[in-house]
Amino acid sequence: MKKIKIIYLLFFASLMAACSHIDEADQLIYVAPDIVEECPPNSALRNVLLEDFTGQQCVNCPRGTKVIEQLQEAYADRLIAVGIHGGPLGFKGNAAAIGLATDLGDTYYNHWQLEYQPVGLVDRHGAVNYTDWFTAVREELAKPSKVSMQAEASISNGQVSVSIKTECLDGTYNGMLQVWLLEDGITATQKRHDPIDNDNTTINDKNYLHNHVLRTAVNGTWGEALSVAANEPATKTYQLPLDAAWVSTNLSIVAFVYNDSGVEQAIKANITIKE
Question: Tell me, which fold does domain 8-273 have in CATH?
Answer without folding.
Answer: Immunoglobulin-like (2.60.40)
